[in-house]
Amino acid sequence: MNPKVGPPKSLDASGGSVFHIMTGAAESAVIRAAASTQPLAGWLLQMRVEFNYTIDDIVDVQLRLLNRSRAARAWRWRNAALTSLLAGAFLFAVIPEGIAGRTVMGTIGLLSGAAVYLALNDVIVKRRLRKWCEENAGSDKTFTCEVELTDSGVHTKSNGTQIIYDWANVNEIKETEDSVDIHFEKGGLVVVRNRAFASPGEHQRFIQLAKQYSDMGRKSSEPNAAS
After folding, report:
1. Is 142 within 8 Å of 157 (Cβ atoms)?
2. pLDDT per position as a tens digit, 174-189
3. 218 contact partners, CB below 8 Å, separation of at least 6
4. CA–CA separation, 131 vs 27, rounded Å?
5. What is the CATH code for 15-58+142-221?
6. Which long-range contacts (CB under 8 A, 24 or more apart) does 37-42 make?
7. 188: Cβ–Cβ under 8 A, 6 or more apart, which residues?
8. How would residue 164 be classed by pLDDT, with cut points 50, 70 and 90?
């Protein structure tokens, strides 16, 4: 007799998760399989989480993507170096002192120019990203995101858009102070906020299941996997 699938847990207003387990004699075995990140006799476990997010969360995700981008980091440091050189050259030229004094002021200009640029750049980029996100998000202030882990990939549903990320394209599964970040090739990113989990145990089960599927996807995509 096939084991029955138990009813999902309810979701509260701020978020929650649904961990699909089997009732009856197979229940404890499935939970052990999830804890050990191993499939159970052909059963591939699934887990779905849901949480609310705001414009600030969208901006935060975009900033995380920029911080991981080599191109964005190169632009930032190139502009910082240019600003530093211009500030140093300006102070060196306008200070009516001897060469020693002008050198000191030029050095101060170099350092202060870079520091001011880096500080202002973060503020400016964040403000521009927020305006862009508000323009694209419309009048809504709060949104709902659903993330489901299955053997076919990471399924996301948010703001009327559904995306499926293949496990073979996972680059990194990273825990942060407030989220679980799943990074994919070509700049893809899924951020699951900690408020999506009802307990630390669910948080860990989500990470374990994601890593299990990621490892399986990586092995299946290796050139000699089919041989």
Report:
1. no
2. 999 999 999 998 888 9
3. 167, 168, 170
4. 48
5. 2.30.29.30
6. 37/208, 37/209, 37/211, 37/212, 38/212, 39/212
7. 165, 169
8. very high
Confidence of residue 49 (pLDDT cuts 50, 70, 90): very high
- CATH 2.30.29.30 residue ranges of the chain are 15-58+142-221
Tokens of 211: 């890593």
CA 9 to chain centre: 25
**pTM score:** 0.66
Element of type H or E holding 154:
strand 153-158
Q: What tokens appear for 123 in the block?
A: 């503020």
What is the tally of helices (H) and strands (E) in the chain? 5, 8
